Each structure stands twice: as C-alpha cells, then as structure tokens.
Amino acid sequence: MDELFLFQFPSIPNPQNETPQDKVLDYVVPMDGSGNTHLYSSMGSGATGNDDDDDNGEKKKLMHRDVERQRRQEMATLYASLRNLLPLEYTKGKRAISDHMNGTVMYIKYLQKRVSELSYKRDELKKVLNSTGFDHGMSSDGAVLSTAVVHQSLDGGVEVVISTGFGARALTLSRVLELLVQEGLDVVSCVSTRINGGLAHTIQSEV
Question: Which range is the signal sequence, renumbered to this chain (predicted)?
Fold first, then answer.
C-alpha cells in the first residue's frame, strides 16, 4: 500500500475578515460587505477641544477690546470736563493732555495760595472789627450796637455782613469800607437792607 502523506498547511487569513490598520497614522479602516470604508482617528476627539479653545480665545479678545474702548471713552469725557473747569490762560494753545494736567496742577496751586491769602485777610479783618468795639445786643445806655460777620464767599472773595445800629459805639458803613481798603481788599458790591429799624449791609470784596 502506498504511503499516505499528510501535509498541514497554515491557515491563511481571509482578507475580507481582516481589519487593516495604519501603523503610522493610527487609523482603523473597518470594511463591510458593501465595500464602504469608514475612517476613524484616535486624535479626532482632541480636534473638537482645540476648536472650543480657539472660540474662547476670540471671545476674550473681543471683551478686552470692548472694555478698553469704554475706558478710553470715559477718560476722554473726564479730560474734557477737567479742561472746561480751567481758565482760558491755562489751556490756550495747549492741546496735549499732559499740558492740560500741568495746567491743572498750576491752577490748583494758585487757588491754594489765594485761599491762604483770603483766610489771612479775613482773620485780620476780624481783629480790626473787634478792636473798634463791635459787640452784640444793647449797651448799658440803651444804644443798639453794631454786629459783623466775616467769612469767605463762594467765588473766593471775602464777604462781610454788618448790622449797623445807633449810638456812640455804633460803627458806620463808611468806616467798614475804609477798613476793607486798608486791609488790601477791593470792594465789588454792597447791598443794604433795612431790618428792625436798622440797616444790614452785605459787602462783597476780593483781593
């Protein structure tokens, strides 16, 4: 009897059942019976995250631009308001914001000096008025005495309000005006009003 030889061949995988895989790009290409292929990438999930980050970055840039634009508009409004408060001699021929700021500093120093001078004049005037015998109420002989109030007015000058009475110790308006001139004050206006048989005088003066 002829000898029977048995050969065992290794199994050859069916190409249709094998799932090819790209070793470099890590793409899996499953194939179905229709011949259609579907591409799947292991990096596909990361692409969506990058798009979201880009969108958030653009939104932040737009918000930053809006905030910066609003800040510049507000600063421009404040600079315009400040410029309108300054006298013309501090802004004439000056367009730069830095020049306006320097003018503002100079104007503030001028106002501080003026306030100090007026305060000194006010105090000196009070001393002079007190030395002339100003008092309140009535004297022992029944004469109505004069009273005076000295304070700084809203426009930076000195305002004197006196109520003249009658009697030997009463101070007249002319004497008060003379005292103001002696203290270096210029009388701008004087308004007199009759009150309770006497006169009340409001005198506006400036340095």
Answer: none
